[in-house]
């Protein structure tokens, strides 16, 4: 219990104190006009209330990630608490804030364009392809999953294909219509439901006297999965996730002032960390430890079965409704913004304005034709790379943030240290993972550490050169 409570306090302290230091290093300029006003187009660039931006950002980055990922990460034992706390405050929230604010400084530029500005044209070319491809694949996956569940909950004639069609129609509308027409109206509702469910589960675990285990550094995973680097990829949402940076430009185009960036980006990530912490505690406490939790999460029921059982027991009928809503709505609210992000990224890449409906249709229609085709393609092996790819995005984005801070003559260590860490994690993981090169763990970890050290060395060499230019496209 003490570890859990202290963890919540540390996450809150991270927002109250460390976020202000990060904001100072970024040099947030409160009086400067944001793209929401300077580029207002009534479609993607629309000034929105901060509370609404916060809830949309939260749902954009969260979905079911801090629930399912947290329960799977809890199989490593209470040590998962430590990764969520430190990873979120020092890594994930810094990553989300800096990437979101750098996008804002560059008129809401998409992630791949930011990579190009600070890491070079070669990186930009690679990340353009990967970013668009990644967003489309995420969108497609979050069509079929909810469709399968809805088919089970509705009459037989409303089958999987019917719900795939319905979800695709919704995705298409959410992608091409102004952001305040659909996303701006329903996201705050679903975001509030996500918070209510987390608060209810956390309160139920505490006040119904469940035993939440204290911090331990032992690896308790039932499958003897090595903690390094597997836990740091398993728990992405809630600690650090590169997918977030693909979503941040959506809200960077809607912020009324740079002073609200700390709440919208850093704050949303802290709340996601709180949700992850709650679900780790719930999984370990409700099942009285890893062995029983493992039987459910690694069994036929999976993480979704654990979520249903925990919420039904702790919250009763209300919990069942919230769970069904969450398991269906949260993936959908990740998929729609993934497609919207893909459209924005394509528009940025080819410099194609998106203010006119005709232009948005030119990009969206081919993208959705391809996506519909992909729903009939089995790509389980490809999807297994997505967890690693998410963390690889975080690695690349953190290095871009570090270059930005160097060019701004600010303390780059706030992003450089997490960048080094994530480089070691990503390289070590892909070297030994079943979907990777399957090399011996010790060798893989050494290679990962060497890769992180070499990357850091290249970073120092490049940034110490005196031909470093000032931050572009921002008139101070």
Automatic annotation (TrEMBL):
<feature type="domain" description="CstA N-terminal">
    <location>
        <begin position="4"/>
        <end position="144"/>
    </location>
</feature>
<feature type="transmembrane region" description="Helical">
    <location>
        <begin position="413"/>
        <end position="431"/>
    </location>
</feature>
<feature type="transmembrane region" description="Helical">
    <location>
        <begin position="360"/>
        <end position="379"/>
    </location>
</feature>
<feature type="domain" description="CstA N-terminal">
    <location>
        <begin position="158"/>
        <end position="281"/>
    </location>
</feature>
<feature type="transmembrane region" description="Helical">
    <location>
        <begin position="227"/>
        <end position="245"/>
    </location>
</feature>
<protein>
    <submittedName>
        <fullName>Inner membrane protein YjiY</fullName>
    </submittedName>
</protein>
<keyword id="KW-1133">Transmembrane helix</keyword>
<keyword id="KW-0472">Membrane</keyword>
<dbReference type="GO" id="GO:0005886">
    <property type="term" value="C:plasma membrane"/>
</dbReference>
<feature type="transmembrane region" description="Helical">
    <location>
        <begin position="125"/>
        <end position="142"/>
    </location>
</feature>
<feature type="transmembrane region" description="Helical">
    <location>
        <begin position="186"/>
        <end position="207"/>
    </location>
</feature>
<feature type="transmembrane region" description="Helical">
    <location>
        <begin position="318"/>
        <end position="339"/>
    </location>
</feature>
<keyword id="KW-0812">Transmembrane</keyword>
<feature type="transmembrane region" description="Helical">
    <location>
        <begin position="265"/>
        <end position="287"/>
    </location>
</feature>
<feature type="transmembrane region" description="Helical">
    <location>
        <begin position="385"/>
        <end position="406"/>
    </location>
</feature>
<feature type="transmembrane region" description="Helical">
    <location>
        <begin position="437"/>
        <end position="461"/>
    </location>
</feature>
<comment type="similarity">
    <text>Belongs to the peptide transporter carbon starvation (CstA) (TC 2.A.114) family.</text>
</comment>
<dbReference type="Pfam" id="PF02554">
    <property type="entry name" value="CstA"/>
</dbReference>
<dbReference type="InterPro" id="IPR051605">
    <property type="entry name" value="CstA"/>
</dbReference>
<keyword id="KW-1003">Cell membrane</keyword>
<dbReference type="InterPro" id="IPR003706">
    <property type="entry name" value="CstA_N"/>
</dbReference>
<feature type="transmembrane region" description="Helical">
    <location>
        <begin position="80"/>
        <end position="104"/>
    </location>
</feature>
<dbReference type="GO" id="GO:0009267">
    <property type="term" value="P:cellular response to starvation"/>
</dbReference>
<feature type="transmembrane region" description="Helical">
    <location>
        <begin position="162"/>
        <end position="179"/>
    </location>
</feature>
């Amino acid at each position: 219990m003490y570890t859990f409570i202290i963890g919540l306090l540390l996450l809150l302290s991270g927002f109250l104190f460390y976020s202000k230091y990060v904001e100072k290093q970024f040099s947030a300029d409160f009086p400067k006009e944001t793209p929401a006003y300077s580029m207002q187009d009534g479609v993607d660039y629309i000034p929105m209330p901060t509370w609404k931006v916060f809830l949309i950002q939260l749902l954009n980055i969260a979905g079911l990630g801090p629930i399912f990922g947290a329960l799977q990460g809890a199989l490593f034992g209470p040590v998962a608490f430590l990764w969520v706390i430190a990873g979120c405050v020092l890594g994930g929230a810094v990553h989300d804030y800096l990437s979101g604010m750098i996008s804002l400084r560059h008129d809401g530029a998409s992630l791949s364009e930011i990579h190009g500005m600070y890491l070079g044209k070669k990186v930009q070319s690679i990340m353009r392809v990967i970013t668009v491809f990644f967003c489309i694949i995420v969108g497609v996956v979050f069509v079929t999953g909810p469709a399968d569940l809805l088919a089970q909950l509705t009459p037989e004639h409303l089958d999987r294909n019917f719900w795939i069609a319905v979800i695709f129609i919704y995705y298409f509308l959410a992608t091409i219509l102004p952001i305040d027409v659909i996303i701006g109206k329903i996201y705050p509702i679903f975001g509030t439901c996500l918070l209510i469910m987390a608060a209810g589960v956390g309160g139920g675990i505490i006040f119904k006297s469940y035993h939440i285990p204290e911090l331990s550094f032992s690896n308790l995973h039932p499958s003897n999965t090595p903690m390094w680097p597997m836990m740091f990829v398993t728990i992405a949402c809630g600690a650090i996730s590169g997918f977030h940076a693909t979503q941040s430009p959506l809200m960077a185009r809607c912020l009324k002032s740079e002073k609200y960036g700390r709440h919208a980006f850093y704050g949303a990530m802290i709340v996601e960390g709180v949700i992850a912490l709650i679900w780790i505690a719930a999984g370990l406490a409700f099942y009285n430890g890893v062995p029983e939790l493992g039987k459910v999460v690694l069994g036929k029921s999976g993480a979704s079965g654990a979520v249903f059982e925990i919420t039904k027991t702790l919250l009763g009928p209300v919990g069942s409704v919230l769970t069904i809503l969450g398991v269906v709505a949260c993936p959908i609210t990740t998929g729609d913004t993934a497609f919207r992000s893909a459209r924005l990224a394509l528009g940025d890449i080819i410099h194609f304005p998106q203010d006119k409906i005709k232009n948005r249709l030119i990009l969206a229609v081919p993208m959705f034709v391809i996506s519909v085709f992909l729903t009939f393609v089995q790509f389980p092996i490809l999807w297994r790379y997505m967890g690693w790819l998410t963390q690889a995005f975080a690695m690349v984005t953190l290095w871009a943030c570090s270059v930005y801070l160097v060019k701004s003559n600010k303390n780059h260590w706030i992003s450089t240290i997490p960048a080094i860490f994530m480089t070691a994690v990503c390289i070590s993981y892909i070297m030994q993972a079943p979907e990777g090169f399957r090399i011996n763990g010790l060798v893989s970890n050494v290679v990962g550490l060497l890769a992180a050290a070499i990357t850091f060395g290249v970073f120092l060499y490049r940034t110490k050169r005196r031909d470093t230019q000032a931050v572009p496209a921002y008139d101070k």
